[in-house]
Amino acid sequence: RKASRAAMSSPIFEAHAIGVSLDVPDIEIEPGGVVQLLVTMANRQDAPDRLSLEIEGVDVEWYAIPVPAVNMSAMSESVGRVLFKVARSSENRAGSYPFLVRVQAMETGEVGVAQATLTVKPFKGLQAEISPKRGVATFFHPLNDFEVAVTNVGNGDETLDLYASDPDDGCAYEFDTDRITLKAGQTEVVPLALRPKTSSMLGSVRLFGFTVTARSVDDSYVSANVNGQVEKRALISPLLGIFLLLLLFAAATVYWLRPQPVLPPAINAFTAVPSSTVEGGDVTLSWDVQNARQIIIRKHVRRSGADGEDMNDPGEQRQDVGRVTVRPEPPITIYTLVLRGKGNQKDITRSIKVDVAPRPVEPPPVIKSFVADPSVVHIGESVQLGWSGEHYTSAIIDPGNLTLSAFQKSQSVTPDADKVYTLRAVGANNKTVERRVTVHVVPRDQAIGVIDHFEVKPSTIYIGDKAHLRWRAHLAKSAHIASDTGSVNSDVPTTGNLDIVIDGPTTFTLTVSDSVGLQSAPKQITVKSEARPIPAAPEPAPPGQPGTPGPTTPGAGAPQ
């Protein structure tokens, strides 16, 4: 242990007047046990001093310092001891507690500190009590209420499951809640409802012993049990029960031996749900009869031009109340319930009609679109196949013969070479329709981004006005526009537009990069610029026209 502590210890000497070093920075302690911490104190002062050892950050009841102070000469070392002892109590919670080891010189006031952590290990323990200890279950009051008190005597939180059972499995148990969470030292009372699974009319008193168990969800070995009892009492004692049983037997014998009149058969109900359907649809026939010796359901199909013959379909039935599923035929099917009575009684019948419409013509399947996004990829990249359609029940993608449901509208594939994918939609009566799409696969060192369009309007502009850039690219993940004048130099969407103020002839360059960062051939456009012309001065108007002063004659307009 000394070797391991020496390997884990921090350096003894530090650049302080008082040096502090611990043999271990992290201490683990089992509640109820004792752990020793060795503290190396160094007096690096030029004069002897008395050094005191203190602990800060943990409960004073958790540690003891046998020698709290020691006289030390200049430039010397001494080893002190700190004994840690944590009581095995739920109040001392499990966890890590950082603390400081402080060494102070009594004469000069110099201080040295070292940090450490005390880890209190968890321990587990449970206690359980039940109240009352014994209950009584009678015929009319079989339910018994108990209270189970569970206490967590460990030093960590516990989540517990509650169980109850008896060796004879004669009782049913229901907790108000069968899972609880207890903090350390916490007690919770859980109501328990108990009742025997059977109630006896006749019998003697029976005693059931049951066990209530509280078990940790995290550790099944952590549990607590408590025992209780319930006394089950029958309604009638054995002697009284025998007398009543004989009396009942005699009354039943007289009842069953009395003459029984022959009751006529009767049809209480005979229905078909639904009363109309389409060809191939199912209909449920339901009946309710009584006093029948034999029950038969017959089928009669009424066709245009000629009626069919009566058939025993679905035929003879065994139950007075029941139902059966049939499939009627177009255009009209009549079902007749025949009830034969006991003895010489006359048969009675009841019929119901089911209208059957012809099966509707299913529309053929349709594929509205089938696209690959993207249609050109580098080898190893995935392609999303997407489609839309209607009137189909399943779809198949080749190559691969991949079968998809009608609800799936896309599928990811990773081609290793140029491939033509075929989508086949399968509809009613196995009718199919197909559509194809081609995916091109190129090497990873080949750029696939394409600039479709790059223009500027107007191409000649006055200085200070804005030019409108527009561009569009496909199979590209990013785009960049730069100008030779530095007015723009930024990443832009692969499709978009931009307004830029022009202050001289400017050449714009558009570059695009694909998914692996390869750039395609750039495109350039140039905007010519010219100075805005100065407006010309207005020419003078001829004399005498409005707005222009003409020659004046002295005295003009004066009275004569």
What would you note in describing this structure?
The strands form ten sheets. This protein has a five-stranded mixed beta sheet, with no helix packed on it. With 560 residues, it is mainly beta. The N and C termini lie far apart (140 Å). The chain contains two helices and 42 strands. Helices cover 5% and strands 53% of the residues. Strand 17 (206-216) and strand 18 (223-232) form a beta hairpin.
Brief descriptors of the model:
five-stranded mixed beta sheet; disordered N terminus; 53% strand; 560 residues; flat
What's the helix and strand layout?
Elements: H1 2-8, E1 18-22, E2 26-29, E3 34-43, E4 49-56, E5 63-64, E6 69-72, E7 76-85, E8 95-105, E9 111-120, E10 126-131, E11 134-137, E12 144-152, E13 158-165, E14 171-175, E15 179-182, E16 187-196, E17 206-216, E18 223-232, H2 238-256, E19 266-273, E20 276-278, E21 283-290, E22 294-302, E23 311-317, E24 321-326, E25 332-340, E26 348-357, E27 366-373, E28 376-378, E29 383-390, E30 394-398, E31 402-405, E32 410-413, E33 419-426, E34 432-442, E35 450-457, E36 460-462, E37 466-474, E38 478-483, E39 489-492, E40 495-501, E41 506-513, E42 523-530
Write a brief structural summary.
The chain contains 2 helices and 42 strands.
Runs with pLDDT <50, length 5+? 1-14, 550-560
Describe the largest sheet: 5 strands, mixed
Beta-strand percent range: over 45%
Number of strands: 42
